[in-house]
Amino acid sequence: MSFPSPPGAQNGEYAGVVTYSDHGYSLGKVLATAHLRLPFTQIATVLSIVIDDKPTRTVAAAMPFFDSDGVRLRA
Q1: pTM of the predicted model, to two decimals?
Q2: Structural domain boundaries of the chain?
């Protein structure tokens, strides 16, 4: 018997759990914080999370999420 991968799985491997998400207005993107297992914490690691029953591509990023060049503000 096989079971579906849990939310937060990468290639069927459990990566972690999202603890908070919200729209980042200064970046124009949805941001989330998560508790990730160590193998998935490298910056730019591509992951998949489930939002409204749909897999969504995500990328591990350094914190804090910040538009240090002000690109978004000048757009």
Answers
A1: 0.62
A2: 9-65
